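Quick one: structure tokens for this chain, please?
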Amino acid sequence: MNPGTLLRHPALREKTLAFLIHLGLSACIVGLVAALMLLIWYPQPWFMHDGGWTVFRLILAVDLVLGPLLTLIIYRRAKPGLKRDLSIIAAVQLGALAFGMTTMLQHRPVYVVYAENNFFAITWAQLRHGTKDMDRLDALKTASNMLPMAYLQLPADAAERARLRSAAGQGGPLVISLGDHYRPLSATDWKEILRQGPDIETLARSDADIAAALQRFRASHAGVMETIAFVPVVCRNDVLMLAIDRNTFHVVGWLD
């Protein structure tokens, strides 16, 4: 049967209109959440690599797909209890949205720290759990949309370092999240980190995905590759390769 013929049926027109209104309202809300994530909470590359997309998929599934579809299924103007049913759908959507946004805020990446010979993306929840003096970390923040980077400087006393690691093993804060021991990365730190860093060409020869990402990076950074080094950052979803300028030690991009 022709879809146009179906839509001339009053009940189907009402269902379709209710579905489209619900879909439009949901899309506006989900779009606002997406903007907050991409511009503030999870700017790229962290959205794809450090959990943003994982949480956002839940919001998409419930608020942009399931909610409007349920409205399409149940909507009938004369249906007894219609307002109650629509209220339940809205409550489920709002609950999923509240849960998703709370999760995003708590587990958004806020620092990249060099610790235990690796860079790690640290979430707000981890940092808050492991840090007593959050104010001192403001000195590490930058004006760019890249996460501030720090160096974990554990106490010189071996017994104290052992105590911190033991506490982490017994349910305490992770060693990498001990913000009270963060300090700015110095030029000396960077030189040593880059000296010990992986050879991206060697990695590309053994990994087709890295080779393809490196080729795309070269195409957009022609003429400056000789000044760039790559360092891995351990994220929740995978390992991200950040591109660092060897002269300024600034992040100039990443392998996607």
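The chain has a mean pLDDT of 89.
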